[in-house]
Specification:
Layout: H1 4-9, E1 19-23, E2 28-30, H2 31-47, E3 55-59, H3 64-76, E4 79-82, H4 89-99, E5 103-106, H5 108-120, E6 124-127, H6 135-141, E7 157-163, E8 171-176, H7 177-190, E9 198-201, H8 208-221, E10 224-227, H9 233-239, E11 245-248, H10 250-257, E12 272-275, H11 282-292, E13 297-302, E14 306-310, E15 324-325, E16 330-334, E17 347-352, E18 359-360, H12 364-370, E19 377-385, E20 391-396, E21 401-403, E22 406-408, H13 410-418, E23 423-433, E24 437-446, H14 453-463, E25 472-475, H15 489-495
Parallel strand pairs: 1-10, 3-4, 3-5, 5-6, 9-10, 9-11, 11-12, 12-13, 24-25
Antiparallel strand pairs: 1-2, 7-8, 8-18, 13-14, 14-15, 16-17, 17-19, 19-20, 21-22, 23-24
This protein binds methylmalonyl-coenzyme A and adenosine monophosphate.
Length: 501
């Protein structure tokens, strides 16, 4: 029996001495060297006692080693659970506990503060530094390079990615090998990636965009990546002249446009810029074309579904739209009952296909709420379809804020604020922000003498990742409510719409 995920993404590179990762310090890792590194890691997973189906959680800075852990998990049949480096110990406690991770890999720098989290949840903690050091790297260094992948099928789980929810707890989206492979194959073809491509990779590798879209596509195509630790506009401008493609969130594009030295010449070798994870303003699309001559290709997707739609590679890339459903992905726009709305009308995007996840880990009720009996997943994104099939996202039925491509759920922030002394209640809304697209703002109603806002800020810092911090705390006498008593968030969004623009 084979191991399709490993064989198709990684195993096929055995013996290929072609560049895979160009690091910013000038180091180059070939495809074969990467495979050998991941082989050692796969042995180390086994030596650490992990068996197929076990979960491995990883919260480390971006590095080739972090990527090699993903490859090692695929080889050993271990379910890979990458975590945002911004998550606090309080947030990690939940993910480790809920997933039942047996091994938790963190950076040496955070081991001291995270050891109690791992211990409390019964996980083994090992370290893996961005420089390739740490206890797990030591263990791996003593292992052989070649690992015979364990037999797996396309239906086996490959990864868990946690997504927050409108209410209550985060949910672990269970992704199978088929989910990841089918989408990577469709995208490689749709966007014409080949072994000649060099992708500027400046996204984090703990989310779908940087890992399953950018990295998996490049692994399938057999090309190389200019592997930046994070997005830095100046560094990107220095490296773009040796790249052929880039994938980014809209903030990457607005930040590039702020730089005068970003010109048509910078992009002389480029054939493709892709944007996703958040809406790209039509204005940014046009400004980018004016400056560089390139029309950004916008696509749309979700953790639970991988990529759903894309503007065409050949043909019209229509600003303000997310293009057409990808081959093999069935998409419909429906009312609340799952009946398709009339052409041109607004409804919720529902999607079905090999790309759609298996469900939420140990949350069968939530899964049943979001996947219809006929297999269509309800995205919560509001959209319209043009007569020629182009899809425009017009809003969200879910209470979600997207800041710089990261999702922020108001409920989580509101609960943390409401727990503070002197707060009667709060509402968090997303307002336009020139750099992050949207940013959370918190509106608080005082109780008694009212809250100490500096103390509220400190408490939020301890509890929640940096990108979730409200950019402003505003005190008001009362929240606007409708006749049913529900807080009118739309009114709050309108009231504070100009705070940052
Ligand atoms: C960092 N900070 C942020 C964000 N990122 N604040 C709001 N929104 C953000 N996105 C804060 C930090 O907490 C810190 O605050 C300060 O900014 C500086 O941190 P730093 O890391 O230096 O920030 P940065 O380098 O400027 O990062 C901005 C960024 C980054 C480049 C836009 O957030 C990024 O790479 N975003 C990509 C997200 C992504 O990959 N999304 C894909 C999700 P302080 O100083 O106060 O502590 S997958 C998905 O959505 C679906 C499937 C899809 O369709 O792709
Ligand atoms: P995530 O939960 O991180 O997978 O985020 C998925 C959400 O990001 C989707 O449900 C959309 O709301 C949003 N999204 C992704 N791509 C786009 C896009 N091109 N335009 C608008 N929204 C997008």
């Amino acid at each position: 029996m084979s191991n399709p995920l490993h064989d198709r993404l990684f195993g096929r590179h055995l013996g290929r001495e072609t560049p895979f990762l160009h690091l910013t310090d000038g180091t180059v890792l070939t495809h074969d060297a990467f495979l050998r590194l991941s082989g050692r890691f796969a042995h180390a997973l086994t030596a650490a006692g992990l068996a197929p189906g076990d979960r491995l959680a990883l919260q480390v800075e971006k590095s080739p080693e972090a990527l090699a852990v993903f490859a090692a998990c695929a080889a050993a049949g271990v379910i890979f659970l990458p975590l945002n480096t911004a998550y606090t110990a309080a947030e990690l406690d939940y993910f480790i506990g809920d997933s039942g991770a047996r091994l938790f890999l963190c950076d040496p720098a955070t081991a001291h503060s995270l050891r109690p989290v791992a211990e409390a949840q019964g996980a083994r903690l090992e370290t893996l530094g961005p420089d390739g050091t740490g206890s797990f790297a030591d263990l791996a260094a003593r292992q052989p390079e070649h690992f015979a992948p364990v037999p797996r099928s396309e239906d086996d789980l490959a990864a868990f990615l946690y997504t927050s929810g409108t209410t209550g707890r985060s949910k672990g989206a269970m992704l199978t090998a088929r989910n990841l492979l089918s989408n990577a194959e469709v995208l490689t073809e749709a966007w014409r990636f080949t072994a000649d491509d060099v992708l500027l990779h400046a996204l984090p590798i703990f989310h779908t965009h940087g890992l399953f879209v950018a990295t998996n596509v490049m692994l399938l195509a057999g090309g190389a990546m200019l592997f930046h630790p994070r997005f830095d506009a100046a560094a990107a401008i220095r490296d773009l002249p040796r790249a052929t493609a880039m994938m980014g969130v809209p903030t990457f594009y607005t930040r590039l446009l702020e730089q005068e030295e970003f010109t048509r010449e910078t992009c002389a070798t480029m054939r493709l810029f892709v944007s996703g994870s958040a809406p790209l303003l039509a204005e940014t699309h046009r400004r980018f074309e004016d400056r560089t001559g390139h029309r950004i290709l916008e696509r749309y997707g979700m953790t639970e579904t991988n990529m759903i739609t894309s503007n065409p590679y050949d043909g019209e890339r229509r600003p303000g739209t997310v293009g057409l459903p990808l081959p093999g992905v069935e998409m419909r726009i429906c009312d609340a009952h799952g009946s398709e709305v009339a052409p041109g009308e607004t409804g919720v995007i529902e999607v079905r296909g090999p790309n759609v996840f298996k469900g939420y880990w140990q949350m069968s009720e939530k899964t049943a709420e979001e996947i219809r009996e006929d297999g269509f997943f309800i995205t919560g994104d509001l959209a319209q379809e043009d007569p020629d099939g182009y899809v425009t996202i017009v809003g969200r039925a879910k209470d979600l804020i997207i800041s710089g491509g990261f999702n922020v759920y108001p409920k989580e922030i509101e609960e943390a604020i409401d727990a503070q002394p002197g707060v009667r209640e709060s509402a968090v809304v997303g307002v336009p922000h020139p750099d992050f697209g949207e940013t959370p703002v918190a509106i608080l109603v005082p109780e008694g003498a009212g809250p100490d806002l500096a103390q509220v800020e400190r408490a939020l810092r301890d509890a929640l990742a940096g990108f979730k911090q409200p950019r402003k705390l505003i005190l008001v006498d009362a929240l606007p409510r409708n006749t049913m008593g529900k807080v009118q968030k739309a009114a709050l969004r309108a009231r504070y719409a100009d705070l940052f623009t």
